[in-house]
Design the sequence.
C-alpha cells in the first residue's frame, strides 16, 4: 500500500508541476523529446532562487571562494586528460524481447530495494556486496550473472532474455568548424568541473587567491543517458552547481569532512525533515577519487543522490599539467611545522557537486501538501506548496476586493511600490477565496487584499500562506513584514 501511495505522491508532483507552470515537456507540441524538459514561468523563478541560495551560501558567505562561468565547448584534450573519453561509461544490458536497454547496476539496485522492503535484509546486503565487488573490478559478466541469479525480469516484456552487459559512453560529440570536412570533434561537457580546473591558474593569479580556496560554477551539462527516467531526476540536459576547493596535500581528509557537514547543513536549512537525508559512502570510487560520499534524499521512489562530495586528490590538475605541458602548481609561502615554506605543489581538490534539477524536484516533493480543512459541517481541502518563503517564486500577490471603486488602482499602486524588491503578482479575477487557493498552490507566502477600508485609512489585509491567518496592517509596514520572512538572511543564517 505504501508503494502505491509513493507512486501517487510522485504522479501528483509531476501533474502539479505542469498544471501550475513549473515544468513542461520539451517540444510538447511535437510529442516531446525524451528526457528533456522546459522550465515554465514559475519553474524558472524557483530554479533561479535555488541557484541564488547556493551561490550566496557558497560564494558570498565565503571570503575564499569565488565564482566563474566557463564555456560549454572546450578543447577535446580536456576530456582526454580528465579520463572521460576512455572511462565515462555505464554498464548497459538489453532485453532481447522488448528491445529496451537498462543500466545493469540500477536493475540490481531496484532488486535490493525490493528485498529490503520485503524484510529480506540479509539477501539485500549480500546482493549489495556482490554488486559492489563486480563494479569495483569492472567485471561485466559477473553483473549479468547476478541479474540472472536473482531472476530479474524486464519491466516491459516480463522476460529474462538478456544480452551481455556492455559499457556505453555517455558523452555527446559534435563537429566544431565551418564545414563538416576537416572540422574537429568536440564534446558537450558531461560535467562543469573541468572548466574550473583549466582556469585554476587564471583565477589564482588574477584573484591573488591563497590555499585553501574554492572556485564555484553553475552551468549546463549533457549526458547521453540511455535510461533517463523519473521525470527531471535523470535527464540528458541538466544543470550542476559545483565547487572545487583547492587544499594542501595531506589536508584533504580534513576538508572532505568539513564540506560533508557544511553541505548537509545547507540542505536542512530549507526546512526538510532531517530523517529524509542520509550519507552514502562510495564503495567503488571514481578513477580520480580517494574518498566519496553522496548526500541522498528519500524521494517517493527511494533514497537517491542529490549531491556528491568527492576528494579528487591532485588527479585533475596533474592530468591537465601532463596533457597541456603547462605547470599547474601553486607556490605556498606559509611555513610548515619545521619552519620551512611548503613550496611548490599541485593542490589536492575537494569537490561538492549538486544537481540543480534534482534539487528542484526535491524541493517540490518536500513542499507539496494536500491539507484537510474539513469541519463537521463541510468537506474541504487545499493544495499547498509549503516552500521556504525565500525560495517561493512569487513573494506577494496583490488583490483588489472588487474591480471597481478605485480598488484596482490602489492595488496597482501598492504593487508598484513592492515590485522593486519582491517578485509580485496582481490578480483580480474570481472570488477572494479562489485567488487565495491559487496562490497557496504555487507557494506564495503572502496575499494582500485591498478593500474599501484601504481607501479610508491606508490599511490592507495580509494573509499568511502557512497558517491562513489574516492581519490588518498599514501599507507602510508591508515591506518590512514581507522582507522579514523572504529575506535571504532567513536562510543563510542557518546554512
Sequence:
Amino acid at each position: 500500500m505504501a508503494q502505491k501511495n509513493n507512486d501517487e505522491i510522485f504522479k501528483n508532483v509531476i501533474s502539479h508541476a505542469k498544471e501550475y507552470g513549473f515544468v513542461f515537456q520539451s517540444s510538447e507540441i511535437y510529442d516531446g523529446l525524451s528526457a528533456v524538459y522546459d522550465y515554465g514561468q514559475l519553474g524558472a523563478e524557483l530554479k533561479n532562487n535555488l541557484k541564488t541560495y547556493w551561490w550566496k551560501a557558497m560564494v558570498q558567505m565565503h571570503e575564499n571562494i569565488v565564482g566563474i562561468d566557463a564555456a560549454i565547448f572546450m578543447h577535446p584534450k580536456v576530456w582526454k586528460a580528465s579520463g572521460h573519453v576512455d572511462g565515462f561509461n555505464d554498464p548497459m544490458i538489453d532485453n532481447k524481447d522488448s528491445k529496451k536497454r537498462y543500466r545493469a547496476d540500477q536493475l540490481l539496485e531496484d532488486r535490493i530495494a525490493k528485498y529490503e522492503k520485503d524484510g529480506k535484509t540479509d539477501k539485500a546486503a549480500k546482493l549489495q556486496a556482490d554488486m559492489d565487488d563486480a563494479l569495483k573490478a569492472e567485471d561485466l559478466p559477473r553483473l549479468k550473472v547476478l541479474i540472472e541469479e536473482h531472476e530479474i525480469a524486464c519491466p516491459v516484456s516480463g522476460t529474462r532474455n538478456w544480452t551481455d552487459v556492455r559499457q556505453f559512453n555517455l558523452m555527446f560529440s559534435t563537429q566544431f568548424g565551418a564545414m563538416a570536412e576537416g572540422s574537429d570533434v568536440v564534446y558537450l561537457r558531461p560535467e562543469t568541473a573541468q572548466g574550473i580546473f583549466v582556469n585554476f591558474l587564471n583565477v589564482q593569479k588574477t584573484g591573488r587567491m591563497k590555499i585553501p580556496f574554492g572556485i564555484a560554477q553553475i552551468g549546463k551539462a549533457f549526458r547521453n543517458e540511455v535510461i533517463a527516467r523519473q521525470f527531471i531526476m535523470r535527464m540528458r540536459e541538466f544543470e550542476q552547481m559545483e565547487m572545487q576547493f583547492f587544499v594542501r596535500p595531506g589536508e584533504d581528509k580534513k576538508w572532505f569532512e568539513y564540506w560533508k557537514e557544511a553541505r548537509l547543513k545547507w540542505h536542512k536549512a530549507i526546512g526538510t525533515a532531517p530523517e529524509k537525508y542520509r550519507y552514502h559512502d562510495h564503495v567503488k570510487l571514481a578513477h580520480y577519487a580517494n574518498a566519496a560520499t553522496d548526500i541522498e534524499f528519500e524521494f517517493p521512489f527511494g533514497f537517491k543522490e542529490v549531491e556528491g562530495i568527492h576528494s579528487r586528490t591532485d588527479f585533475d590538475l596533474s592530468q591537465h599539467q601532463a596533457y597541456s605541458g603547462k605547470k599547474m602548481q601553486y607556490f605556498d609561502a606559509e611555513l610548515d611545522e619545521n619552519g620551512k615554506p611548503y613550496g611548490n605543489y599541485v593542490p589536492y581538490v575537494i569537490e561538492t557537486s549538486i544537481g540543480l534539477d534534482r534539487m528542484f524536484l526535491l524541493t517540490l516533493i518536500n513542499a507539496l501538501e494536500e491539507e484537510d480543512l474539513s469541519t463537521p459541517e463541510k468537506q474541504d481541502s487545499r493544495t499547498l506548496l509549503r516552500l521556504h518563503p525565500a525560495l517561493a517564486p512569487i513573494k506577494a500577490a496583490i488583490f483588489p476586493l472588487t474591480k471597481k471603486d478605485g480598488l484596482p488602482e490602489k492595488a496597482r499602486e501598492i504593487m508598484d511600490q513592492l515590485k522593486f524588491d519582491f517578485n509580485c503578482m496582481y490578480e483580480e479575477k474570481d472570488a477572494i477565496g479562489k485567488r487565495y487557493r491559487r496562490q497557496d498552490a504555487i507557494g506564495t507566502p503572502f496575499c494582500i487584499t485591498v478593500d474599501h477600508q484601504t481607501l479610508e485609512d491606508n490599511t490592507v489585509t495580509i494573509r499568511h500562506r502557512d497558517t491562513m491567518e489574516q492581519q490588518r496592517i498599514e501599507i507602510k509596514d508591508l515591506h518590512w513584514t514581507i522582507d522579514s520572512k523572504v529575506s535571504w538572511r532567513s536562510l543563510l543564517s542557518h546554512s
